[in-house]
Every structure is written in structure tokens, then in C-alpha cells.
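Write out this protein's structure.
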Amino acid sequence: MSDTPRFTRRRFVAGGGAVAAAVAAGVVVDQPAQAAGGPAGPPAVLPAPVPGLPVSQHAWDATLARDQYGNAIPPRHARLLFFDVLGAPTPRYARLLEAQLRGLEHAYAWGPGGLLFTAGWSPDYFDDVLHASTPIPRAKPLSDFELPTIDSYHLCLHIASDVESNLVSCQRTLTGALAPILTLKEARTGFVGAGLPAAHQQGIGGIPSGDPVPTSSPLYMGFTSSLKKNQATEAAVTLASGDFEHGTTMAVSYMRLSLESWYQNLNQEQRIARMYSPQTTVKDVAEITNDAESDPNLLNQAINRYGVIGHSQASARARRGGKAIILRRDFDTDDYGQAGLHFVSLQRSIADFVATRTAMNQAAAQLQNPVITDTVNNGLNEFIFVLKRGNYILPARAQRSFPLLPSRESLLES
């Protein structure tokens, strides 16, 4: 299609027609900035906090259903809403944002049947808005074969629900109510769960014809990413002290998926080798309960004997004491008419995300076996194109609205 964005591994180029199509689909929003005078009139009415909500805004797991093996079932629909702050914020900004977020908590039950959300703040918020030192580093390319656009948005709201209409209503409400203080710059949409990727596979780039995505698969690539032992716990990623005690950090990447060769050139055994490890069999996968069968201690054997690296096997090299160090909340997307993945991960330090991504790259493997390169026979690297990336801090619930803004507490007393 002439108005579909063109992708390469080194660059993402979208023509004017593609931008127009994306705007029409509600994917990319670049509203005109309003006057930077902030909210007019009396301060916003601040609802009382909803009783019983967890201190950590990223504490979702207790609300999630579990499968027969104890794996958490993620909300089926999600959106990432990216905002910029208008003008110089005052305590009224914090009060208005907090009023709207509390309003959502009153309007929807906290959980996948209602609404789950987090508010994350970027290094640009601290540097450019508060003129203060940032508690997290800016995102950057993490391999020699990627050149992502580094997001510079100030605020990222991650909203999720089993009920997609709740997200539509939430986005519409927030966009209007927060217009005096925040402008919505981009909205990324997506889904995860059995049946949804299959339902979104026809007529989009990156998926070959013939409906290859299994109807039982929660993700486009035909496998799951939410196995219990492949995930860090919420407690493990929660900050234990400092200004952001009870918070965490969030890394957000937008990846385009190129799955033509995944489905057309590889059989199931070959896909399993690249997803898990070459030592993993079809029978092993059928018997997976809550951890991937991909022994990281066999990585050298995979490189030297099989000439293929498994994604799970390589990534597990970043575990500490056998435990994962990031908590994934990723979801598939058909934004821009392309199969993609919004990779959202929570971790105590952005360095943990970097360590996991670095382990996934296995950049030195080709020195042991030349049939392996950065992107050939090397896990999933051949099939993903990282186009955008950003880092955020997720404060505790009480500090989520304009954290560290001077005098914010003066207008946030409930």
C-alpha cells in the first residue's frame, strides 16, 4: 500500500499519507499546543483516594486471573498515551492530574475487568520541565543493528483492561480534561491473549497470507511471554528507598515484526529453536507450565553444535540467582497497519533492562561460529525492528502526579 510506512532495520520513514492514516485510526495524535497559562479558575475538585488501592501504582498482579499453572493472565487490551507538559507547571497542574486519575479509580474497578494504569515520567520531564537531575537515564540504542527514535515525551500513561471500550473512554476523557496542562502527542494501541493476534493478522504488514498465526496464541509469534518463572515479581522490581520508594522504572520500546520468513521459511522445530533453544523439542514446549525450557548453561553447545541461539536461552543469562530481573507487560499491535510489539518492562533499575537486552543480542557468538551473526540464527533478532524507545520512572501512587514539583503537596491534600 502506498500509504503504509516503509521500514528498514536502520530507519523508519513514514510518508504524509501514512501519518494521515494513522491519525484517522487514532494512533498518532499531535494536537496544537494550547496557551501555556495552565488551568484557569479555582483549583480542581480533588476526589478522596479510593480506599484499599496498593501503595505502588504498578501493583497489578493481585487483580489478575491465573491459568492452571499459576501464570498471570494479562489484560487483553492496552494503550500507551504520551503527553507533553504545557508551559511551566504549578501545583495546580498536579492537582488537576491527580483529580483525573482518582476520578478514573472511582469510575472503574481496579483490575482487568475495569481499569489498570500507571503514570510514568521521562528524563525530559525532569531535565526540561523541572530543570532538575533525572533519576533515570535516557534511552539509547542497545545493539549495533538498531537505530531507534528516542522518545522525548514527558509523561507516559499505560492503561490496560479486558474491556477495550474502557480504554477508548479513558483516553477521550483524559485528553479533554487535561488539555489545559498536557497535550497528547501519541497513542499506541494493542492487545494480548488467545484469539486476538489471529483476529488482527489479515491485511497487515509483516504477516504473510494464509492466516499463519494460531488462534490459540496470545502473541503474533505463536508463543507466550507471561510464564511465571520468566518474570520478575512486582516486589523484586519495586524500589525500596529514596524519593521513588515503592515505585519502579519502565522501559518502553515499539518494535515492528517481520514474520514472513518466520512462518514461511521455518518449520515449528526451527521456530522453537529460535524462541527457546535448539535443545528444546516440540514435546518440551507442549509440556511447558510456568517456565521456558531453555537452559542458559547450554548456550555454548547451542552456538558450537547447533549454530542457532534461542531467545529465552540467551535472555536467561541475565537472570540473577536463576530469577528474571524484568517484569514484562508487553502486547502486540497493528498500529500503522504493521504487525508490531509494544515491549513494556518494569525493573528496579534501567540497567536491568539493558542487561537483559544485551544478553539477548549475543553479539560475540559469531566469533565462535560464523553461521551466527547479529541477526541470523540469533534468537529473535532477525524478526524484530526496534523503532522507538523511552525510559520512565513510575513513582508510588501518592507521588504519581508531577513528582518532585515544588509545593505540589500544598494542593494535594485530600
